Structure prediction request, 106 residues.
Amino acid sequence: MLKQLILVLIISIGVAYFSTNIAALLHMLMNFQYGVTNLVASMLPNDINKSNLLIAKTIALTIFPFIVILIPAFFYWLAKKKEMPHLSLAIWIIWIISSLMFVLEK
Prediction:
């Protein structure tokens, strides 16, 4: 329990210290996510209504974590010739972050 408390304290200090860098990284991720959403929306019929926008956002929210994690997983596979450990956990973490970005943008 003490180790977890120390870890949370260290991570909190790191987040507070690097908050501007983290904000810039999240902003880049959000822009990339908007790009994926716009790409998916462009593949749907041209009449933009709420259902098409909902479908585009759902597809983008599903695809986005795999695209983001695919890049480091590919380089890990090139270096080690095996699957990146904790791959599904990383996908879920990116999905949670991207879904929070979708919710908090409004």
